[in-house]
Amino acid sequence: MFEYVLLSIPVIFLVASVYYAYKNVSVGKRTKKTAVVRQIASFAIVGTLCLIGSVAVMAADGNPAPAGDAMGKAVSMIAAALATGISGIGGGIAVGGAAPAAIGATSEDPKAFGKALIFVALGEGVALYGLLVSILIISNA
């Protein structure tokens, strides 16, 4: 029972932070940049809570710390998650800047569609490379 309560706290915190940021931006109290910084900070806090929570659950069950092989697998899973997450964020930023420019260029000159589509696809390629790296990390773990 303790595990479920401990695992529900980060979920509640994330939902509350998203709702809080949405309300502040929609009312006009905060800019979008401030909302993004708050979201990144809240995700960092939740990540820390999850790491601390997993140690607390292991201590409550009386399990010793994971051995070498289990620790290596845990670190490889964290590395795979970071590779996918960070590359996804980078790809989103790239596509977020390239797609509106591509739409604008296409509306002015329809012949520029192929060239514009290539730049949007290059931004998405970053996310795909991160996904491939995480698949390689998981398959070797």
Count the strands? 0
- List unreliable stretches of 5+ residues: none
CATH architectural arrangement of the largest domain: Up-down Bundle
Q: What is the number of domains?
A: 2
Mean pLDDT over the residues: 79
**Please, what is the CATH homologous superfamily of the largest domain?**
F1F0 ATP synthase subunit C
Order of helices and strands: HHHH
- The helix tally amounts to 4
What fraction, in percent, of the residue positions are helical? over 70%
Structural class comes to mainly alpha
The top level CATH class name of the largest domain? Mainly Alpha
What do we call the CATH topology of the largest domain? Answer: F1FO ATP Synthase
The end-to-end span amounts to 31 Å
